[in-house]
User: What shape does this take?
Amino acid sequence: MNRCPKCAAELETPLCCAVCELPLEVDDDATPFALLGVETAFTVDVKDLRRRLLRASRQIHPDFFGASSPELRALAEKNSARLNRAFEVLSDDAARADWIVKSQGGPDEVAERAMPQAFLMEVLEWNETLEEARAARSTVDPRLAGLQATLEQKRGDSMDAVRTLLDPLPARGSPTLKRARQELNAVRYVDRALREIEALRLARSATR
Assistant: This one.
């Protein structure tokens, strides 16, 4: 557990001290897990993360440090931004997995573009359904609802596979990280397709 450099109190987050009620200088390479004071792992308690976010946010809110302390206010603004970004990463399953894969020396989405072979066989069918839905003039297209349900199920399956691959945390450079990246590539495809389905629905609702 880190301690405050000013009062030696234990810190829940290195971004601030609850005893001193001050923001603290933090190394630029501090991880999202470190910033929220939790162990590096794929499985996290999002409710606990939110509680930690709220506690730290109250302690380092920039409004607590007015014009009389411009340096402290600037530090509070910087730390608040870092805290919020850390929460965004860790509270999202795909973003959290992406961070872990990269931090453990695995490939990013540019170095490894492949998706699981079984998933690829279904992508062509899904793309065809989307193309037909784009061309359809009907404001209600039942194919979109069916495709959405299928894609949501596939996303869940891929994230279950990612969880199996990353929990427990694989060794740095493990081949497991490449497989996790391929599953994340599938999740990224699904998320794009789901966003497009929602956009088509909104556009058609507007024309009714």
Observations:
- The chain has two domains: 16-91, 109-206.
